[in-house]
Amino acid sequence: MEDNAIGEINFQTKSQSIRDKMKRRREAIQNLHALATSGRPLEDTAIPTSSSSTSTKPTAASMPAVSEAKKQKTSDKSSAEVKISTSTPVAVAVSTTVVEKTEKKKIAVEKKRDLDELNALLSMQSAKEREERSQQEEILTLLSKPTAKELSLMDTFRSQNGGGVKEFCSYSTKKECMKVYRSREPCSKLHFVKILQAHTDQSLGDCSFLNTCFHMDTCKYIHYEVDKADICKKMKKGGGDGSDVVVTGGGGSRSRMLESTTKLVPAQWIQCDLRNFKFEVLGKFSVIMADPPWDIHMELPYGTMSDDEMRQLPVPDLQDEGLIFLWVTGRAMELGRECLKLWGYERVDEIIWVKTNQLQRIIRTGRTGHWLNHGKEHCLVGAKGNLPINRGLDCDVIVAEVRATSHKPDEIYGIIERLSPGTRKIELFGRPHNVQPNWVTLGNQLDGVVLHAEEMLDRWNRVYPDGYNITENFFLHPKTE
């Protein structure tokens, strides 16, 4: 009996020991599973063992549980990744596209900024260029200042109305002038202002004909006019009161003198056809200027005369000695020389008119010329006899603005007056804009007959007592106003 009781006790003890071991194993497995799901490293966690053992090394029985936990963790991670990748593919693609576009925009903006900075650097003047430009402007300023001799001549031949040559600013408008000079006030030269109409498109730039454009009412390009404020300022500064003395130099070949007591005759003109007008009415002149309507084989806005009609003009009746200024162009250059010879003149010089637009730039789109666009015209100078003149005052080049068709530069009148001051002068084939004091103007586009000289009125009354028959049943009589 005792042996049976002892055996029963031993069996119960062993069973209790096995149950305790199984319980501890289950607890260990649960702990490992909890650690695996929390993400904490397994190496840092000790696996509890039996109370009697002090070793922290897991037993052979616990190794399969650890392996199973690792496998379970890996499978959970992979399944989570698959779930994320399969559940939101569209959202990921959209976000990637937005990011790419944003990056591209940033890159484009940076490139544009870099290009702008590079262009700004390239357009900036270097210190050497600024210094050279400053020196050039200083030299031009010195060269443009008149010498003492030039000032004396300018005072000698100053216009009675205070007018004269006015220099234009090379930067055209006041805005550009102030911008270049970094000043709050423009320079003292003349400037231009833009003519902006309702149909003007400023992006097209300047019209090549500027204020001489025939279609300003429809032309979309920019046109210009002289700033009226500058003109008023120049007039006030000139202050001409009509009492200027016009005197030539006293030495050398400048022997003729127009004294202050000499009064110029007011402008006179005769509307006539030069092919049948009797020139003996006019008397003799020291200077003749003519701008004939040459037949240059081009379409022109006025009538022309044949070569034979030009040769047969009675020009020699107007002058015994003096100068003639004959405007020619194109094929008329050779014909003009021939006419001078037939009329008894020797060609002694030639004046060139270089045509510019309103901004003082050379015209490259002239309205005449068969082979090349004409940007200039010639004025042949012929001489007859031995008329004393002032030599060496002017050069043979006129750089002047183009205006209406066949409108010659006004500078020619100043040149002629300085060559032969105070003498009688006549212009053939003139128009209303050619009428000048001390000149007699003839042409079929003038308005009537206006004469002031008594000698010429007497001759007119003798030659044309019933008036000049300009057309059928239409007679012209002279007026004094």
Q: Radius of gyration, Cα only, in angstroms? A: 52 Å
Low-pLDDT stretches are 42-62, 80-87, 239-262
Q: What class would the helix/strand composition place it in?
A: alpha/beta
| Percentage of residues in helical conformation | 25-40%
| Mean pLDDT score | 76
Query: Element order, helices and strands?
Result: HHHHHEHEEHEEHEHEEEHEEEHEEE
Strands, total number:
15
Measured distance between first and last alpha carbons: 175 Å
Q: Approximately how much beta-strand content do the residues carry?
A: 15-25%
**Biggest beta sheet attributes:** 10 strands, mixed
Q: What order do the strands of the largest sheet run in, or round the barrel if closed?
A: 9-7-8-6-5-10-11-4-12-15
Number of helices in the DSSP assignment: 11
**What overall geometry do the principal axes of the alpha carbons give?**
elongated
